[in-house]
Structures are given as C-alpha cells and as structure tokens.
C-alpha cells in the first residue's frame, strides 16, 4: 500500500514539475516575440545581468534564468514571469530607440521600468545606422568574430559583416572556408546555415551574403567595387602592427578605420574595453591589445581601485596556439619549436607590461611570464599581487569580487565562480573576458593571489566587438543608467 501511495505521489510530482516547465516554455515563446520586435523595430537589446536573451531559443532563455539564479547567490533569483512582464511594458514604449535594457538589474533592485526610463533622457537617444565591417584574415579570431556577428538576429543597424579578406588560394578554397566556419573542434557546430556562392565568390551565412576577397596587399583593394564603403576593417592577421603597415588598409578605397586584434607598437593606442576605451576619439587605427591583457586588466583595475597595488607578477597558463609546432621542428622563437601537444613551454609575454598602457596607474609595477600548455583553448592567469591595503581575509576579497561581477558596470566582462569542480573546459564559449575562481584565492597579509580563467578566443572576440561598436560610432542608452 505504501509503495502504491508513494508511486502516486511521485507521479503527481512529475506532472507538477512538467506543468510548471511547460508554462515557462510558453512564457519564453511569448518573450521571444517581444524581444524580436524590440530588436528589429527599435534597436533595443534586452539582457539579464549582462547576458543577452536569445531571440531564437526557448532553451537558452530558460537555462539563462536558471544560470543567473545560481550565479547571483546574493541577489534574488529572477522568474521568467517577471522578465516577461517587464519586457511587455518595455514593448509598449515605442519612443525608446537604440537602448540596452538589463531587466535582471531592474528586477533585482526593485526598480520600476518607468523610474529607470525617467533616469535617462530617452528623447536624446540616437538612432544607430549601419556600419560595414571587413574581416581581414579568417583564422581562429576571424571565424569566432564571424560566428558572433552572424549568430544574432538580422538587423539593418549596427555592425554589418560585408566581406572577408584572405590570401589567394587554389580552387575549392571557398568550400574549405565554409567548412571551417561550420565545424569547430573546440566550439562545436555553428548554430546556423553556411552556403557557398561560387558564382559571386562569397558565403551566404544565415541568409546574409558575405563577400570573400583574395589579396596579398591591403592597399590594393577597392572595396567600393563590392558595395562596401566607410568600412571598419578588423585585422586578424597580426602581420602588421605599426602605423606604416596598418595604414595600408586606410590607403585602400572604401575603408574609414582599422582595428587590430593584437598588441600594436608605436603611437597606436592599445585599448581594453571597459578600462581605457574612453581614450578612443577619432583615431583611425586602434589596437584591441591581446587576449591576456584583456583578461587581466579589468580585474586589476577594480583591485587597484579598491585596495591599491604596490607591485606584482602575472603568470599565464596559456593554451597552445597556431604559431607553435605540432611536433618538434624549426621555429625562430626560443622553445616554441618543440611539440605543443606534448610539452609545457615556457615563453615570454608582453601582457603584464601592456597593462600599463591601458591602465597607467600600474605602469612598471607588473612583471609577467607565460607557460604554453597542451590544451587547445581556455587559459588561466595567476595574479600575484602586493596590496597597499589588504582585505581582512580571502573570503572578504572574494566577496568584493562577487559584488563586482554582479554589478551593472562589470557584469558583462568579469564573472565569478566558487565551484569546487570548475576546470578549463567549463569556460569554453564564455563571453566574459575573465572569470575569477574564488576557490583558488589566497591571501597572506597584504599578498593576494587571484586566479582568472578566460576563453582566449570567445572572451577576447567579444571585447573586440565592443570596441568595434564604439569605433563605428554606435551607442546605446544604458538602462538602468
């Protein structure tokens, strides 16, 4: 009798959970329609604690609400019904244009949408136009940028990927390029359709035509022939790193600005978005610095602002890259000729020194080194810092970093994990520039050791696009302010 009763209870429990989930699915479907309307008609993007709500995936929306509840342990969990109610109210306001609205922050802080809108002047919201984008180089970063740009719902505003430039190649090159975009050994299959257009020498990606241009010299290209003008070129090759080399892009017809996805030399600004992007004015050529510099600088900034940093050392445990050899062979750099998949390889890094360019307060205070390890993606930066005023304990330091990670200022860039089971593959595809591992934090007197995970491909590429958006003159009213 007990077994029958228990079975009935479990059956009812199953039905209750299923009914609750089905209700959430219907709410997510309704939410997706409103999100698409806001995005297409008003250029309004809705986020949940900095994470973009996908306009095409019910599963992603529900999973994100669950993820947010787990991540923000000191904040209230957000029910999808509350998000839907907030977005319904938002959709009724057709005067709002070109805005990013974080419903998570509004709900968690018990801020009404009306109050949040009154705190900003929506009448002065600018209507963003379209900016042509050219990806010069189609390696790891080039393909990740393509995925990020074309995974979003189509829009007539913002960054528009119009062309990819690669070196001249043999017949069949287009098919190989398409295959590399579709299939990725690290990031999995591309969530979309890629069709080769041999007749027009391009790729149709999620319904959008992208021209493929073959060239050896940037200055020889006339982009206007392909209907491209006033373009922002994102150089992913790393071949040119100074004014003379990168200036070749500007010499070509149809290019307005250039963004380098590598550290630059000379007088070119090395910019970490969120830290010193306010220094970018009308610069024609800008560098997005390196993946490691981007990963560590935001955390270093908040730690320096809160506690002050006397000096320190940054050790990077970095995944191997394409410039290393699979098996032992000649390499012009020291040690890098040895097999990348069989060895840990000590090498130099300019990331610590480069921090000083983005954050002058730390100029000359940090040293750095790197160890390349046999993993293909996700790296780890270890910050060994001597603080001017130390927190009371490692727990206090972690509490501060969690607060930072949950703040509206840093939530899209700095993340926080206190999982005892976290390993590198857990962060593949993470768009945050750096994830603080609380379990590894050590504090001895004023000496702090902070560990930061980062997807050196996706996290960095997300930062590149933030900077590209700014260089293109695209801006959004932030709500809450």
TrEMBL record:
Residue ranges of every copy of the Glyceraldehyde 3-phosphate dehydrogenase NAD(P) binding domain listed in the record: 131-291
InterPro entries cross-referenced by the UniProt entry: GlycerAld/Erythrose_P_DH, GlycerAld_3-P_DH_AS, GlycerAld_3-P_DH_cat, GlycerAld_3-P_DH_NAD(P)-bd, NAD(P)-bd_dom_sf
Alphabetized UniProt keyword annotations: Oxidoreductase
SUPFAM superfamilies named among the record's database cross-references: Glyceraldehyde-3-phosphate dehydrogenase-like, C-terminal domain, NAD(P)-binding Rossmann-fold domains
EC number(s) reported in the record: 1.2.1.12
Domain of life: Bacteria
UniProt-recorded Gene Ontology molecular function terms: glyceraldehyde-3-phosphate dehydrogenase (NAD+) (phosphorylating) activity
Similarity annotation: Belongs to the glyceraldehyde-3-phosphate dehydrogenase family.
PANTHER family, sorted: GLYCERALDEHYDE 3-PHOSPHATE DEHYDROGENASE NAD(P) BINDING DOMAIN-CONTAINING PROTEIN, GLYCERALDEHYDE-3-PHOSPHATE DEHYDROGENASE
Listed name of the protein: Glyceraldehyde-3-phosphate dehydrogenase
Organism: Psychrobacter namhaensis
